[in-house]
Amino acid sequence: MSTLAAQTRPAETFAPMSARRLLIFGGIALIAGGMLFGDIFAVFVLHQNGGQTGQALLAACEAASTGNSIAVKEIFQRIGGLLEDRGTKVDAHVHMADAGYLALLLALAQPYVVLPPSRKKLLAGLFVTGGLLLPVGIFLIHYVGLAYSPFAVIGWASVLADTAGALLIVVLIAECYGIVKFVLQGGKVSELALPADRTWERRALMSGGAALILAGFLYGAWYAGIDLYRHEAREAQILKSMLNAASAGGGGTVVEVANYGALAAGRAVKIAAHSHIIEFGLLAMLLSFVQPYVYLSEHWRRRWVAVLLIGSVILPVFVLLELNLGLVAGGIADVGGLLVVIALIGMLVGILRYSGQIDTTGVAA
Amino acid sequence: MSRARKLLLIGGFALAALGMLYGLYYALFVEHQTLDQMGGSLAQAFVQAAERRQVEASSSVDNYAATKYAYVRQVDIHSHWIGLAMLLIVLGVAFDFVVFGERARVWIAMALVAGSFLFPLGVILQTVSRNTAFASALAIFGSATVTIALAAVVWGFWRTSSEGRGVGGASPRVSAYRFGERE
């Protein structure tokens, strides 16, 4: 493949309206959209939702303290609603970004998918459509509920999300079928591979991305070894103390609810730091492959790479520091996320310029 | 295509399929029951506390903790298998940029694939029996293998940049190639 790649020019691998072009555009747009949504969620929803959940838990303790078991059940239903609100937004953020990663991955795999170009283009279009509709459906689940639904427990938003998810699965199965054909036909590629140049941008993204993933692995191992079991034992201990205090009716539940909230926040930021640094590492590695298509001056290409890597470090580090520095660190983490989004949009603009250039002149300048 | 790349790509696709199949099975047959059990245990603990049944409330909290212990690990397996599969596939495409001899690259690829499979497997075995050292040892061995192999990959990428060698370690034609230039 190296030989083939060595003889490949970017313009030849980026045909107008090709599946690869669609997947690269769609993939970067989905990742940028998913991250922007995550940033907005972190600023306007996450902390407020956590506060409301804490208040509801305190209310449940007070209801238990007064022996009102009916109120306890009602409050737990409210907590379920709050958790659904938070969960669907986190899922929308994660699924949109992950669909983008998969789109970029499929763009890399296109030479090994032995299918007619029109079929590949159709599959790419369906994948990007599914990748957009899936998070939209997930986001709407909390708001649409069971309104006008003919089903007992599934609302229209869930139907939309499930249909979009099924569409993604169908496309992935079809792409796998194309890869199986590639293997059965003795490894003949169906189109040119991505250019295998080794510019500074590509090397920085490749080694920087792998280093970020390695840091995420090491931190994950640290968390699993040091904190995971301790957190689990502490959670049960706090809940028992909370219930004992509520049953005794002598106060103390406020402190236990605060302890529970602090534990949940501590666990959330550690897991978020672990997952975000690995995702950014994977993103950097994936973006290294599309650098030949970023039609900007060398100065700007390098600038966007640097901004992306800096943002990829700032976000997880300051998410982790939220425990010590509070909302200031949270704000800096959001700026880190914004830097990654800006770098992504900058690269996307470069790719759009590149496609415009080769579409009008037939070759890259 | 080199052996190392084949190993990573096949291992990655196989692991992705395994992770997705496990996720599908879990979502269809286990997850809803587990979530119901988890939420139900916690709500029940508060109701029992309201009824001043302290022993039962404490037992319900223990049930909640045990269910959550399994739930966290079962979901982690799904996400870690698929996440590691994506990493293997990306590395499979990029592995020519890792500047080591072919033998070393095959060993690194094998370590990545084996560790990616064994680490989540060890985690899932922890849910079968909480007190088995074998499961924890397997998870630690798998994660250590993947981490060490990835450190080697980072070094390999770095060597590419610091020593100025080309794709696959020996392709000056490629290193001369630049965006928009004609050979």
Brief account:
The complex is a heterodimer of chains A (365) and B (183). Chain A is mainly α and 365 residues long. Chain A is built from 9 helices and no strands.
List keywords for this structure.
heterodimer; A: 365 residues; mainly alpha; 2 domains; 9 helices; 82% helix; disordered N terminus; B: 183 residues; 5 helices; 83% helix; elongated; disordered C terminus
Descriptive account of the structure:
Chain A is an all-alpha fold. Chain A folds into 2 domains: 1-196, no CATH class; 198-365. Chain A has 9 helices and no strands. The longest helix of chain A is centred in the middle third of the chain and has 49 residues, at 200-248. The relative contact order of chain A is 0.12. Chain B has 183 residues and is mainly alpha-helical. Chain B has a domain at 3-25 and 78-176. Chain B is built from 5 helices and no strands. In chain B, helix 1 packs antiparallel against helix 2 (54-94) and helix 2 packs antiparallel against helix 3 (102-128). The longest helix of chain B is centred in the first third of the chain and has 48 residues, at 3-50. Residues 164-183 of chain B have low confidence and may be disordered. The chains are: A mainly alpha (365), B mainly alpha (183). At the A-B interface, helix 1, helix 2, helix 3, helix 6 and helix 7 of A face helix 1, helix 2, helix 4 and helix 5 of B.
The fraction of residues assigned to DSSP E strands of chain A is under 5%
The end-to-end span of chain A amounts to 26 Å
User: What is the number of helical segments of chain B per DSSP (H or I, 4+ residues)?
Assistant: 5
Outline the biggest β-sheet of chain B. Answer: none
Shape of chain B: elongated
Could you estimate the helical fraction of the residues of chain A in percent?
over 70%
* Number of E-state strands of chain A: 0
SSE order of chain B, one letter for each helix or strand: HHHHH
Question: End-to-end distance of chain B, in Å?
Answer: 23 Å
Report the total helices of chain A. Answer: 9
Please state the average pLDDT score of chain B. Answer: 82
Low-confidence runs of chain B: 164-183
Most residues in contact: chain pair = A-B, 65 and 59 residues
CA radius of gyration of chain A: 24 Å
How many beta-strand elements of chain B? 0
Main β-sheet description of chain A: none
Shape of chain A: globular
Helix content of chain B: over 70%
Using only C-alpha atoms, the radius of gyration of chain B works out to: 23 Å
The string of secondary-structure elements of chain A, in order, is HHHHHHHHH
